[in-house]
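User: Working on a comparison across species. This one is diguanylate cyclase from Paraburkholderia phytofirmans OLGA172. Can you predict its structure so I can line it up against the others?
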Amino acid sequence: MNAPVDSLSDLVVERVGFGIFVLDREMNVLMWNRFMQDHSGLSPDQVVGKSLFTHFPELPRVWLSRKIESVFQLGSFAFSSWEQRPYLFKFDHDRPITGGVDFMQQDCTFMPLMRNREVVAVCVTISDVTHVSIVQREREEAVAKLQEYADRDGLTGIANRRYFEARLHDEYTRWQRYGGEMSVLLFDLDHFKKINDQFGHGVGDTVLRVMAQRVAGVVRAQDTFGRFGGEEFALLLPCTPLEDAMRVAEKIRCTIADTPVEVQGTSVPVTASVGGAAARVGVPAYDVLINEADAALYSAKRQGRNRSVAFS
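Assistant: Here's the predicted structure for diguanylate cyclase from Paraburkholderia phytofirmans OLGA172:
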């Protein structure tokens, strides 16, 4: 003999793998399925007939009440994604704790239940999307790491030339629009080829890494410090006039020259030449600024190296 349709419906509601509960307009619970019981620890007898907030005072009362009321007024479905609101109920999840989420991540659907074209109740479904959220977060973190690696110089860990020029372009565009001050420094290590020839490329790589770490330790957080290629480095100084930038140049030069690099029991003396240039009316593009700083850098080399020169 076939089971009554109502009995089958009740069985489905009890057995489905997501939460189902029904609310009236006063936020009283009219139905509470097995999923909700298992995850809340509260049976239908404890919940039905009472305000939802009686047992769950931590729920976002204002937001949830407005959501339910909108379904009553409009008679249309509403939805809430875990990306907007990670969870409605603080239910435990069965995913590894390494997933980085404290509670079950939930998608919520709000469905109007109608009789004679009038909304008489709202059915809310709770879907466990914890696995989806963890996978998506891991994917986003992986993409962010790949992007970070794409922006970094593989040897020194500072910004690479592509990223530096992108930041310079953005900052130059901002300067063109709003004015102010902006400077660029280019510097490279003096006679670096001799270091490679005398001590080997392994020592040369170590010198580059140590120099990058030293300089990174003295620049501001808002500055962009990058490797321009080989032994040449660049520093973008937003909101900085050329006079102040040349003080930074001297600080960098001294930071590099004052202490030799100790590598494999060998003390390697290192100095640097620095060239600086500043944005000003008449400089048509950011790459002209680089060319001017480069000209100042080579002027420093012609004057004997281990010095700072501003473009004029």
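For your comparison, note: The mean pLDDT is 90.

User: Helpful, thanks.
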